[in-house]
Input
Amino acid sequence: MAAVDALIALLLISAVSESDRPKRSFNPFGKITNAAAGVIDVNALLADVDVDELVERIDINALAQRVDFDAILARIDPDILLDQVDADALLDRVDPNRLLDRVTPDQLLDRVDPNALLDRVDPDRLLDRVDPDRLLDRVDPNALLDRVDPNELVARTDLNAALEKVDFDAILARVDVAKVVDRAGVPELVSQSTGHLFTNFLDLARRQLVAVDQIVMRLTLRLFRRDPDKTPLGPPALIRPGNGSSQAVVTGHYAGPLSRLLGFLADLAVVFGSFTIITAGILFLLTTFLDQTDISLSAQTALGLGILIVWTFSYAVISLVIAGRTLGKWLVGDRVVATDGGPIKPWQAVVRVLVMPLSFLLFGLGFLGLIVGSKRRALHDIIAGTVVVYDWGDRQAEMSAPLSAWLSRRDDTDFELPVDPSP
Output
């Protein structure tokens, strides 16, 4: 064995020395080595070699440094090599954890050409073996989005081509339009827009009524030579300091004759319209369920008159007690209050409705106070201790801007009282 070891060492040294030294014309050792190699039975020699001991005596690192791997790989056919290798057996013998521990990702990426690697990868086979759910579970979308440049992405996207591939019919078929409309607040938006449009139209009509009222009341002040500065604008509780400084704002001011007249006519329309429906319903019940088909005309008239009186009284009293206004007064923007501006009491509402017919006596002289009275009170207002003021709810009652400007310019001249020179 010592002779074999010496021979192997001699061969390795000779091979290495031969690769290191430049070739000479005369090399007796080379001739001896070649002659020995031709005589020795290599198979028998390798059978007597202790491979483990041989490997232990070889410096692998030094050997690896002297090996030209590129030349070796250039001479190897990778297809033949892969055909000869049992990949499963090879992978079974590889400890991936130890392998990853010995190789850093930076070192691995530095030596890998990603372009060459991707050129040799079959994407279809790769995607077939990918579990998208597990892949997405390991992806951090926030970190991914942080690394995406949206401007560059949009610049590189062909939007027309992308839209051509989108099936909008399929998308719309899966959309719950009702939920989308509810979440977008479309019903509330439409309701608010419609309500806003209605209130704007209503306020526009109210401004015209207020303008006519103001003109009539200013004419009466001028006719009876009253000082406007000494004429109350409204109840003390509603007219605070500064509240009457603006010519346009009339909230809490005493309501004029035109708005009150139109409010009364609107209430008449409501009362008689609802009375017709109520009477028709009562007559239908009497003739259908009680078999009262022979009711005389006088009885029907008496019954209708009784229903009209009860309904009118109930409508007016309940509306005044609850809201301080009837439907007609709300429409024109008026409200009934006590003389000090506070809410009216139930007994005042009852008295006001009961004595209202007195204002119609003697050709309606009871309504003369609406024109000449300083507080614009009719006879039934005086008896019940009430007044009517402008009140548009959560919005300011205003005059139209042109009339306000015109009145503002004429306040200093139109209502100046002549000074009596006599002592």
Remarks:
- Confidence is low (pLDDT under 50) at residues 1-7, 14-20, 412-423.
